[in-house]
DNA sequence: TAACTACAATATCATTTGTCATATTTCTAA
DNA sequence: TTAGAAATATGACAAATGATATTGTAGTTA
């Protein structure tokens, strides 16, 4: 739960936002509530500045009042809180299709940072442009409110995770959650996904030491639950993983995952 | 983290909402953002049904879609998630002046319950009446958004609590948080407050067993940090408690506590 | 008052998880 | 291609926390 550095963002400009990237957010919203064509194209037409950002880089600093909203296009980022002791708690994972922080601005300063875990492709959307789109397209605004509610449900589940569950259960639960969330945006197959983060990152997410994360992964490997090599996670026995995690699909309010997971 | 029962609410009607109770919410909002007289009286004029509710009683059930908002007037309640194993995680404490759940309704069903911990005095506000007040009084609506942001900041701090801090640190942090929040509504003195909950409740809040809560309290007693007798908590050494907790006042965004706590 | 109940206090023992140390492997950059 | 850095793997041990059992205490009900 320690031993990481803080690095300034090096933004490498990238010329063109392609169709694949542009529609990640739309795909995600569509899993929560069917989106009319007009709302989808309103979102697609939001002008963005796209950037490639390296791993372990701050996208937003604690104390910032960001004037742009960041749309994740590829890679893993996280909301983090750093402790005076050097410990770090990850508050949320930001996956492709996720926005941060659309609701900042009411209170002056962020009380957490947003850091990339892997290399990421992100888009910067002007807060004003987004606000005006949401005013003109109420269905889109509603969809973003649903996203917010989903995020809150995930946060609650994370508190249950660290408060009530064993290391193995926590890990299993997180892996199930990531499967469903990544499937919703087309970043996972039926039985696996790219998981380009470190065991330390997992530990800071689950409230475990990196050593214990490693131990827990070994147990999972030995039990033929998952395989994790070269940043690629393969789930070998999803139904058993779900039982261990006591994972209930419902809290995500998404139509993803229903074909492979029990309710 | 187990051994509790679920009880149906027995609502004892109480005839009259008095001035003291009526203004708990207003007092709380005023600590976040100064409230104009017109907004205060708009809130004061919301008609409510007031009830006395016993301890260990469900105010809202998981799966409900509540059509009333509950305003806490006195006592302690909590948002709870129950696990299949029988464990319970408390997600948030609801104190006098707190509302639950003003934002429900977008998504169909609650994924948690709201239970009283102590005997409580609560007021039921019609969701429609509240919505119409908020439409007519935008400053009040803004104040409630700030409340929401404060609640989210508290949730983040709770995740840090269980994820990063030792039992002693967790407990110290929670006791500091409760001091500030209760002071904001006039339910705490400079050095103490009524804490009418059990050690089991504390454990379910902090992700600890009731036995370990007891152990931790003994350490605090032995170190002359706090005294807790007869449901009354007395803080003997606030500054040391704050240091142990690494408690930063800022995240609550309230004007309460500044006179007795370091920044 | 007596009996009952919930809560608190505490001892003992078991288990989980953290810490430290050290290889080993993989990745990265010169 | 190689040297160095970062990440992973693993063992040994320590510390924190959980589980169980027992007793005490205060409040409640009959």
Automatic annotation (TrEMBL), chains A, B:
Keyword list, A-Z: DNA-binding, Transcription, Transcription regulation
Q: Which PROSITE patterns match?
A: HTH_CRP_2
Against Pfam families, the record matches this protein to: cNMP_binding (PF00027), HTH_Crp_2 (PF13545)
Matching InterPro entries: cNMP-bd_dom, cNMP-bd_dom_sf, Env_Response_Regulators, HTH_CRP, RmlC-like_jellyroll, WH-like_DNA-bd_sf, WH_DNA-bd_sf
A GO molecular function assigned to this protein is: DNA binding
- Keyword Cytoplasm listed? The answer is no
Domain of life per record: Bacteria
Q: Where is the HTH crp-type domain?
A: 165-239
Keyword Transcription recorded? yes
Q: Which CDD domains match?
A: CAP_ED (cd00038)
Cellular component GO terms, alphabetical:
cytosol
PANTHER family per the UniProt record, alphabetical: CRP FAMILY TRANSCRIPTIONAL REGULATORY PROTEIN (PTHR24567), DNA-BINDING TRANSCRIPTIONAL DUAL REGULATOR CRP (PTHR24567:SF68)
State the protein's name: Crp/Fnr family transcriptional regulator
Organism, per UniProt?
Answer: Methylobacterium terricola
């Amino acid at each position: 739960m320690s031993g990481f550095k803080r690095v300034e963002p090096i933004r490498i400009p990238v010329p063109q936002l392609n169709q694949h990237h542009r529609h990640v957010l739309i795909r995600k919203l569509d899993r929560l509530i069917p989106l009319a064509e007009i709302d989808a194209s309103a979102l697609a037409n939001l002008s963005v500045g796209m950037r490639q950002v390296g791993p372990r880089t701050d996208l937003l600093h604690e104390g910032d009042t960001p004037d742009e909203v960041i749309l994740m296009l590829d890679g893993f980022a996280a909301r983090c809180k750093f402790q005076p002791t050097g410990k770090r708690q990850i508050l949320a994972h930001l996956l492709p299709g996720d926005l941060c922080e659309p609701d900042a601005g009411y209170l002056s300063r962020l009380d957490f940072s947003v850091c990339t875990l892997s290399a990421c492709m992100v888009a910067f959307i002007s807060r004003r442009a987004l606000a005006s789109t949401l005013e003109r397209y109420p269905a889109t605004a509603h969809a973003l409110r649903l996203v917010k509610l989903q995020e809150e449900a995930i946060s609650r589940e994370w508190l249950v995770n660290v408060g009530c569950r064993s290391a193995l259960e926590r890990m299993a639960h997180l892996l199930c959650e990531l499967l469903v969330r990544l499937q919703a945006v087309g970043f996972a197959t039926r039985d696996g996904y790219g998981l380009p983060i470190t065991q330390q990152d997992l530990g800071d997410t689950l409230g475990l030491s990196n050593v214990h994360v490693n131990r827990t992964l070994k147990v999972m490997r030995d039990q033929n639950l998952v395989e994790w090599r070269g940043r690629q996670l393969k789930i070998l026995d999803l139904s058993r993983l779900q039982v261990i995690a006591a994972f209930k699909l419902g809290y995500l309010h998404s139509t993803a995952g229903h074909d492979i997971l029990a309710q």
